[in-house]
Design a protein that fits this description.
There is one protein chain. Helices cover 24% and strands 27% of the residues. It has 3 domains: 60 residues, Structural Genomics Hypothetical 15.5 Kd Protein In mrcA-pckA Intergenic Region, Chain A, CATH 3.10.290; 82 residues, Pseudouridine synthase, CATH 3.30.2350.10; 147 residues, Pseudouridine synthase, CATH 3.30.2350. The strands form 3 sheets. Strands 5, 6, 7, 8, 9, 10, 13, 14, 15 and 16 form a 10-stranded mixed β-sheet that branches. It has a 4-stranded antiparallel β-sheet with strand order 1-4-2-3, with no helix packed on it. The protein is elongated and about 65 Å long.
Length: 315
Amino acid sequence: MAEGQEVQWVEVTEGQVGQRVDNFLMTRVKGVPRSLIYRIVRKGEVRVNKKRVKADTRLALGDLVRIPPLKLAPREAVRDVSDNLRNLLAGNVLVEGRDWLVINKPSGLAVHGGSGIKIGLIEALRQVREDLDFLELVHRLDRDTSGCLLLAKSRPALLALNASLKQHQMDKQYLALVAGRWPPKRDFISAPLERYEAGNGERRVRVDPQGKMARTRFHVQEAFPEVTLMEAEPVTGRTHQIRVHAAHAGYPLLGDDKYGSRQGVRLSAGLGLTRLFLHAASLSFPEPTSGRPVSIRAPLPDDLRAVLDRARRAN
């Protein structure tokens, strides 16, 4: 439901206990931008047990949440999911458990809306999966990165999976094609990363002694004359970590419009690569309820597979 015509009072159920008010509303009133959610909370139009709350207020079992009528200006409305995107998302679910799912995220789709993006993967999935009262991202992928993305279908699952992430019990393996011949023995990069805003307001990351420490393991998968297929495992989870560490080592990812090189642009053109070559190939984590190990792989997309085939033929 993207828009309500009358006040609703919604009771918090067991699966929503501990959820923030803003995230609760994002799930209940699908298609509404987060900026509007913050505005109605700030103005006191959203109440919990008839009291004003903040966006980060945590909900308890049995709380009654007041949701006001929502009227969106055309420029505010989150775009409805197209039939093509609906079918793509439905067909890209790799594995689904009782309270979690892993989707093979397409390249070019942001994980969430904002900053001019009318709809992201999470907003689209909330529209597609109307059977779910709760759906949240466990981690994120860059817009141009494809592959395994984990989502929680309940608050307890989200907490358990976030704990696994913080305790380094979740393993994520990426495939990346880099410019140059990566040395066979250079398999670990440790360099602090700091976020900053570029001149156009774009968010970027750089290696800086004042930044937060970040570590990435790299392993050569396949070597070609001018490029190398790498397996990358982020030990820490910083923004753009694999891309910045690879560029810092002197081997930027092909198709990277933020941290790439002129050599990379030339090589990408020669191989017919039209997007970032970074794919979240596998994901392993303890199942949030039973603790049993779960391992999931996302096949390399056809466009990236074709690039590798061209590199092999030119070898």
